[in-house]
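During the reporting period the student researcher (J.K.) took over the structure-prediction task from the postdoctoral fellow and processed the backlog of single-chain submissions. One of the processed entries is reproduced below for the supervisory committee.
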Amino acid sequence: MKLIAQIVLLSAITAVSAQTRGGHAGLDLNAIDRHVNPCDDFYRFSCGTWLAHHPVPPDRGEWGRFDELQERNYEALHRILERSAVASPQRTADEQKIGDLYGACVDEKAADAKGYDPIRADLQRIDALKDKHELGALIPKLQTEGVNVFFQFSAMPDPGDATMEIGDADQGGLGLPDRDYYLREDASLKELRAAYVAHIARMFQLIGEPEARAKANAAAVLDFETELAKGSQDLVTRRDPRRTYHKLTVQELYSVCPFFEWPPYFEAVGAPKIASLNVDAPNFFRALETALVTTDLPAIQAYLRWQTIHTAAPWLAAPFVQDDFSFYARTLNGAKELRPRWRRCVDLVNNDIGFALGRKYVDENFGPDAKASALRMAREIEKMMSDDLNTLPWMSPETRRRALEKLAAVTNRVGYPDKWRDYSELEIVPGDLVGDDRRAAEFEMHRQMRKIGKPVDHNDWSMTPATVDAYYSALQNNINFPAGILEPPFYNVRADDAVNYGAIGAVIGHELTHGFDDQGRRFDAQGNLTDWWTKEDAAEFEKRAQCFIDEYSSFIATGDIHVNGKLTLGENTADNGGLRLAFMALTADLDGRRRRRIDGFTPEQRFFIGWGQIWCENRTAELAQRHALTDPHSPAQVRVNGVVSNMPDFEKAFSCREGDAMFRAPACRVW
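J.K. obtained the following structure tokens:
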């Protein structure tokens, strides 16, 4: 009976015409691999043909539906920047800034002619240090210019009082992606460390150091960064917000790391007078103190030179650009070619002054229909979560009441900020690429510093409008969907509702569920870090979360590396909860209506294929390994198959049966 049902289903699917790439429903029919049984591998069913015809481009480490859309968005940004780069008295102040920064960036000949002159003065200042305690004056300058040395300092809403901003000191200063790259003894990571040292040595040689000295200095850099890595929190630890909230007075910070004169440091980076601040990882600052005391000055100078070169390398002369690409894109990510200069320059402008660029993008590319539809769908999915919370059998009335209060307080932000960022204080000088990049970093540092001690600005966004992504802020209890993601395949105004629910609806549900995952559940409706759960309910949550940890840890990420179920717990919970909420919203939308087949699929089938197809993605082996070690998101195939295998609604939609790979019993579920 099971075999007959699946043959009938597959015959119906195969009968669907695939002559048109986009079906009437808005699905990519040509992406589907009709030789794969959806109950065996739904990801391959949804994306198999797409995967076969969309290899990773040579200038990238991955290529997926996110990248397709981001590339379309960046083509629009490219057109805006090309126009804005033409000097004209009609240009607005923002157009002058984005245009002149882009114009300086694409002038490759000018960059080559300057060699490393743009950073020569900084290198000389580093070499002129006579005593370690002179670092106190140099480090604020380097950090303000965007150089990643020693640690990070910024502003954040106070987890103890989320209405106010406080200073935040955190671990940093590493040139490799994560502490594990320094500390693990895997053969592949040892090879990466050797390649990293060789890269640093080549960079030192480009600024004139003899080969033997360059190699010795590069080894010293690795040693120093390894000491910082030993004190760094691992990624799983950092998932617990209680482990990254340590509010210390300045005097207490002195007791952890007395090397720095902290009040002069705060003044130098532009912060107001600080009485207390959050120190995410006190042990890191203890390790930094030990490293600074025990490492000789020449080794510290080598480290500072390296980080200065590394920060500017993409915008210096061609030899710096090429070697930077060789390690960070080829060795770490598997890219074979350098991206076109214009594309890298669009990235630069979007990173440095992305809200000035994003304002133009929104004016020209973002209509009101997408915003209204996203807000409507968000309200529908919030209603589904309210229904879910009200019917959860394992949650007590007390915790349910607080959860519903938090849900009701969630703010939905779609498209772009209500008030645009003011860049009037930022000077962009035509032809001064590295200087412009540094002034943009300085502008952002000072913007952050001005927040400290003031009420939180709920209009402030962390993603630029053209970004293809979304996020939830636990400290502000809001969900955010930039204009850039509200395009096909995530949202299509002409697509069937079922497809949109499975795509952008699931993304909305995902972000909403983050407010109640293993991290988000620790914050209340106002964004304060507080325990509002009963002990019994917390234990019930942890039991259900453990099911996801165990399930996803059984999946292979790449090669012989398993998914880290603890690191990816929040995203896996959000994927599962988000898709379930979106399906509930679709079911409510279909209530009482005839369930029409379109392109041969029922609404329920279209919903799940819409989900599967937003995750179509190919990756290089190098990038797959990097993500397996550092990314809190599971790989695409795992994201799709892991979720649908936990949903009885999927099994019903595709007539899956016990014994099929996509049939999991017992299924994991929190929300």
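The committee noted the following: The chain has a mean pLDDT of 95.
J.K. will present the remaining backlog at the next meeting.
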